[in-house]
Specification:
- Helices cover 17% and strands 34% of the residues.
- The protein is of the alpha+beta class.
- Strands 1-2-3-6-5 form a five-stranded mixed beta barrel. It has a two-stranded antiparallel ribbon with strand order 4-7.
- The protein starts with a strand and ends in an 18-residue tail after the last strand.
Length: 130
Amino acid sequence: ADCCFSVEINRIIDGDTFEGKVDHSFKIFSTQTFRLWEYEAPERTGKEAKLGKMAKEYLEQLMPKGSKFKVRVYTQDSFGRWLVDVLPVESKSFEGHLHLADLLIDKGYGVLRSNKKRPFFDPNSPYPFR
């Protein structure tokens, strides 16, 4: 059985959030906002703004408008975004990684976030981290 929904990318909001058109099948579609599950990228504003812009631009390269992916939905956050793993459609992996967030962590554009406390991204540190 298929666990996931097909999503066509509308736009990248920031380095860990995007908007897409969900195909619910039977010609039923909806536009939703998604955030990568257990992943944190720098913010677009404040002290992290320069890093956040770089994170967003890299995600835009990986997920251009109109591209399609599969998403595995976990839950909805307090902002109404769906927390998801992004899975490839055409290829079997993202440069050897099963989930998009794993690639982003490997490339140094963000970090694993498995607790409630948000990490601080030092704007003076080398970025991406690797």
